[in-house]
Give the backbone structure.
Amino acid sequence: MSAVTIGPFVLGIDRAAALGGIAIFLLVAEVLGRRMGGAAGAALRSWAVQIVLFGGIAARLGHVATYWDAYADAPWRVLAIWQGGFSGQWAAGAVLLVTILAMNRARAMLKPGLLALVLGIVAWQGVLWQAGPLPRTLVSEQRFETLTGPDFALSDHAGRPIVLNLWATWCPPCRRELPMMAEVAAENAGITFAFASQREAPQRVAQYLVMERIDLPNVVLDLNGDLGRHYGSLGLPTTVFIGANGKLVSLHVGEIARERLEAEVARLLAD
């Protein structure tokens, strides 16, 4: 399982697991804090909220600092947390600092606080464990029409790494990431990039790309969503990373950050 659907929303399994763990942590801290009562209970509940708030801010800033080159041209992306990108080390530092300051005010909250934190981590990792490893799906051999005419099949590119993006013109995160993905594709001639439009008429796809002045290689017309089913995609956009051996290496559901895309491309080239 690579994603979780919540009504009309689709979350990558890593983000869904993290949000689940945070929810369990806050819930347990709230329950234990109410049972404790008094100043210690209030301190426990306040500490839990601060852990999530300041830990999240520190994790995001740490990631941005590490990959600042990718953010320098578009600083607004610092706020684009839906793309993912958090530093575990910076988060841990913030959690430790907040905890030390809280202990100075109410030492009685230490044990219940640690219990809540451990249960949150267990829930987080449990979701990831339950999802299991990514299946080693073999490359699709199905042939598709393209905007430029010749048929396209992923299997024709055996021996080369492949980045497959599943997208649609009606999908806002697809539209946001597409220009960036076109740039990365142009910078990496050693990898086959394919952009498979899902269940859309060729005229609509062509018109959109012309209007937005986006030049994409291998624009595939997947009229029935076959590639999405083949790779188990639950939503758009989905970016599929396929090794030179034709096996699925990783899969990202949702809008992808430039630094994540470049890191996955580098990993494909290194294998």
